[in-house]
Q: What sequence folds into this?
């Protein structure tokens, strides 16, 4: 989809100022603030809009459609794939001012929210009334619910509770034509026409701008417990988890830290945690008796694996066990200046094989590969660490690893999406026929390709 | 979407015979067998195909695309909306010969099946290895898994476990162009490109012919218990259930039978069940201790509602309590020759108001309206009963009831889909802009409108 776009002329800028007043930003300082996200890339937009209503966004899109300039919707800018960057210039629309929690309904078990609400704030508001919104991407304290839906975010709780896309019932969306539409519903079920809700979810702002969300809630599980198993190697951790599943235990979370990740965290903590080379963190939740029963059974299974088994039921103790997991990102940044990160997913049974492959492939090129992540649903975060002049080698490792993922019937992204950084790998996973159907859909929703151009395809 | 189609000429028939051999059916007897489903309508197809592979289906569709004749995919023909009928003539493709369970993987928690597998057979095969496929449409013993996915079927377990669409991970589909494509994945998560899996799910055979399915499984809950509460009125049953939810109990199933439904069942059973005017059936599942605790808490809440509370934990006793629920369909058929049936969904908090409205609206026109169904997720089956010459009145009641559903932020179909019988109501729920996007998608997937014409739109 090659298109030519018009720059934001002074007459377009005048019209945008009429719509937005002081909420139309043009200074170099402002533009630079919106030129980056959590990816390694940077593109300067021509201007930034801070709309406060769906109606304002509709006006902007009608103008963009007429004048042919790119529009890039943006939440908190935590995308790791460059999905929020203005690759072709144009106007970034920040959704941060649409930030109201409009309703949390305890009888219907639904919430109605605007896209700019921070996910952590939303989760707390829901828990305050005894309900639960399970999706928990690592970024939840500083990413928005609209961004989570736009990229189909996941998180550790995916194992038991599914991911963001399992909690979206209805959406208000501004289309590329500048129409405000509603799709989906506020009921638990519905099969009226095609499922546009799931089409917008994970479409990375390329099909419309989400302006309101109806989300499904569930009752909050009253009890949680965490189990930490320190092991001598990573594959053994993956095998231990498969035994848990075979025993029909179904933890809410199963997180893995491999040797490199653990080493990074150890250095960061500046102390040695035993002689462990891997850490498996399991979390069980539910009614008290259920959790007690699960813990006993899990301990029985896991006592034959690993070096040390720790159990925590109080919030404070649990936080302590989770500390190593939370430190991963800053710790990995400390040990290597360069990092290529992917969020691949494998069928659970293939995880042990994949973990050795990733490690060995790194070693073949003299690089370190750190793996951690959501063992529970097979979603492994692969981090290829490199010094500045080793980037080409790192890219080679990446290609071999992603090819292996596809050989093992896996997928190249479980929760980050494609954005800019994985575009090149899309044709490896999707056939030309499937890509052609997807591009056909894009054409229907956004005939002039003004919405977030250069992303996904 | 108006199209003209070519009749199945002798040269087309010759080509179809070359593809299918004796599995190409043309006798009047055969055509009549495929002219009906569980809707009140009937349309004679021109011929019927019994393909045995995706490749054969691809050949048929390439021919249909070239020669412009309609193709109507069909499972077991249990659609209540006429979704499987050959409204424009053409070729019915029965998927019943693609009926192999290809894989049930206990480590990956996935199954790979062909569309013609009966859902009941599949559920049993999965349970034999200790796993669980929750979706349980009432028809599960005689409907196919492919049909369930094509119409987005639901069932009582929707409350806790979601519906069919929550269990579809990947699909092999033959497109209208006769290409065999794969979309989705066999992993638990994935956000690579647009979500075509959910687009095909519930699209009623209008976007492609499903030829293979990758389904998500979960561990089988070890223990079940059923609770039957007989009450003096229907609204009270709905309120009792809201109290259960408020106490953060989350049953797997919450089924309601209103006075008329219960009366029908009573007559059918030829005995009086107490003086109850409504029945609420709750089912809890999970670990043994958990279920025991839930039951105790539920009994405490429900003892102040209703006339009699029964609890069953053994399979045999549970079956006894479920008997009234299972008898509804034959019982309602016995008390009235005509029936207009809808499967509306309301936000849970609106269910009591809706139940009175439905009853009163029936009474206004001198007709009886029986309501039963999945109280748990607000999915109420509304049955307008009428004598032969009252159909016009019944249609008026239907319109008032469906309008009320939309006024209460509900949806006109939770699990049956639109098909033929609800087409007229689609523009009441969906805006012209949304309909236009859906029609645009249809155009991308099936430019000549050969797949299941006259359905949904």
A:
């Amino acid at each position: 989809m090659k298109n030519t776009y018009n720059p934001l002329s002074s007459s377009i800028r005048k019209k945008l100022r009429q719509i937005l007043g002081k909420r139309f930003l043009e200074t170099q300082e402002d533009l630079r603030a919106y030129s980056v996200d959590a990816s390694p890339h940077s593109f300067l937009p021509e201007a930034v809009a801070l709309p406060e209503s769906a109606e304002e966004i509709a006006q902007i899109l009608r103008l963009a459609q007429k004048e042919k300039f790119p529009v890039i919707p943006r939440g908190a800018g935590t995308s790791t794939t460059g999905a929020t960057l203005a690759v072709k210039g144009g106007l970034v629309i920040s959704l941060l001012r649409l930030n109201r929690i409009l309703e949390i309904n305890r009888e219907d078990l639904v919430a109605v929210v605007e896209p700019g609400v921070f996910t952590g704030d939303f989760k707390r508001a829901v828990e305050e009334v005894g309900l639960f919104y399970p999706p928990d991407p690592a970024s939840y304290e500083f990413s928005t619910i609209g961004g989570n839906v736009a990229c189909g975010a996941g998180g550790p709780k995916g194992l038991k509770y599914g991911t963001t896309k399992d909690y979206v019932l209805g959406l208000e969306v501004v289309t590329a034509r500048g129409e405000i539409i509603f799709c989906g519903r506020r009921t638990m079920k519905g099969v009226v026409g095609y499922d546009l809700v799931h089409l917008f979810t994970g479409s990375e702002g390329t099909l419309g701008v989400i302006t309101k969300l109806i989300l499904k809630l569930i009752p909050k599980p009253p009890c949680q417990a965490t189990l930490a198993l320190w092991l001598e190697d990573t594959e053994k951790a993956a095998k231990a988890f498969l035994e848990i599943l075979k025993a029909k235990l179904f933890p809410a979370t199963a997180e893995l830290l491999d040797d490199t990740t653990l080493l990074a965290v150890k250095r960061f903590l500046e102390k040695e945690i035993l002689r462990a080379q891997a850490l498996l963190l399991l979390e069980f939740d539910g009614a008290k008796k259920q959790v007690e029963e699960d813990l006993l059974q899990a301990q029985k299974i896991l006592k034959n694996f690993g070096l040390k088994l720790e159990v925590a039921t109080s919030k404070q103790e649990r936080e302590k066990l989770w500390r190593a997991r939370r430190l991963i990102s800053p710790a990995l940044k400390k040990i290597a200046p360069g990092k290529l990160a992917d969020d691949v997913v494998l069928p659970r049974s293939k995880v042990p094989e994949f973990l050795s492959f990733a490690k060995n492939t790194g070693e073949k090129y003299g690089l370190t590969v750190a793996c951690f992540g959501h063992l529970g649903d097979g979603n492994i975060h692969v981090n290829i660490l490199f010094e500045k002049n080793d980037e080409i080698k790192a890219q080679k490792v990446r290609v071999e690893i992603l090819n292996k993922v596809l050989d093992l019937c896996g997928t190249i992204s479980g929760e980050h999406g494609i954005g800019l950084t994985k575009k090149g790998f899309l044709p490896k996973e999707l056939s030309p026929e499937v890509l052609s159907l997807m591009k056909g859909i894009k054409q229907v929703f956004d005939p002039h390709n003004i919405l977030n151009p250069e992303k996904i395809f």
